[in-house]
Amino acid sequence: MMRRQRCAIYTRQSSEPSHRETSCKAQFDTCLKFIASMKPIGLELTGTRYDDAGYGGATLDRPALRELIQSVRTGCVDIVVVEYLDRLSRSVFDVLTLMESFRDHGVDLRIVTCPDLTISPSDNFMINPLASYLGVKLSN
């Protein structure tokens, strides 16, 4: 029997968006298509949107991110879906802290642009340099 997995999409658009493709709506649509493509294996969207429009990635003090973290802690989410890893944070430390919290609560992270990369202990080796690269190479 297929296990239903509740997915929460998190989007963040910086305070100074440079492209329409970075909008929360565009990110949400991309993540929604990803979830729809995984429906045969049990992925489905939760009813709550977690959009932080107008917030930079230098801090974790964002309203929708706080709400998402609370949903993770209370067991309302099985998988967090983001289009890019840097949508969670521009800080390597913060990304790893969030991922550790997700793991502690049995929540997986799916990065649409890196669908095979998860939060398993073996993938941490790849996530550290990836998060570092994203934090250095991309602007808010």
TrEMBL record:
Domain of life from the UniProt record: Bacteria
Name of one Pfam family that matches: Resolvase
Gene Ontology terms, MF aspect: DNA binding; DNA strand exchange activity
Record-linked InterPro entries: Resolv_N, Resolvase-like_N_sf, SSR_resolvase
SMART domains: Resolvase
Domain Resolvase/invertase-type recombinase catalytic as annotated: residue spans: 6-140
SUPFAM superfamilies: Resolvase-like
Protein name per UniProt: Resolvase/invertase-type recombinase catalytic domain-containing protein
